[in-house]
Design goal:
The chain has about 290 residues and is mostly helical. The protein has one domain. It is built from 14 helices and no strands. It has helices at about 5-15, 20-25, 30-55, 55-60, 65-85, 90-100, 100-110, 120-140, 150-170, 180-205, 210-240, 240-245, 250-260, 270-285. The radius of gyration is 18 Å and the shape is globular.
Amino acid sequence: MSRRGFLLFLAIGLAWGVPYFFLAVAGKDFSTPSIIFSRVVIGAAILVPIAIKRRQFKAALKAWPWVLAFATIEMIGPWFLLTEAERHVPSGLAGLMIATVPIFGMLIAYFFQGDKSVRHPKTLAGLAIGFAGVVLLVGIDSLTGTFQPIYLLMLVLAALGYAVAPAIANAKLKDVPSAGMMGLCLLMVAAFYAIPALGALPRELAAGPGLGSVGALVGLGVISSALAFVMFFELVKEVGSARATLVTYPNTAWALMLGIVFLHEPITIGLITGLPLVALGSYLALRKH
């Protein structure tokens, strides 16, 4: 992988690790529809003018059916499924199920995209090692508890969506400029969540949310939506859709480290042992052999 691809991988891991921190803060004053709607509106407000100025938005509009497919499978569907499932299952289980995204991604690459390189022993070893690292990070004890199987199915479907959407982007949207494609994508998600969000957001704003919650919404929009998705789309072009999904592994690590720094969460043996495995697994699986 090129230096550019490696830097994109690290940056996206951080950009999608901070949402766990932002969501914990914003969730104190805002409902889920309000948070999702606000983050995509902020992201679109940044990307759409840039795309129009660079004359990239027209190309995205021409490809709108595939942009809509990407928006639905990557954001609208998974965000709803995850939000609902995480109300009923342990957070560790949710994190572990989302860590299966690279596995689905590699299967899609092998069986549907004809990428035979993903079956290389080092790639498969990287997948296994990275997944083991995530298991250590979330902790075995966090996976205990009783819950209905429907919520596990919702998590699996969300993970599958996260794996399928990049494959669509790689196959059908590779020639569409990133800013235009993601700007239109965020507008579509905003339109979907507009009705439930606008029913709650005015009341939540009138209640006087804290500056921290408002700042978290801005962070979600600027860092985790506008910036992260543009970088992810570039990473897909750089390394392919299957390997791009490996950002799921360092996401968990970044989230836990940010929790230690800002939320004063404890440093665990699982974190110390899991981080090197995530790093090693990502390195092995990212390389094309």
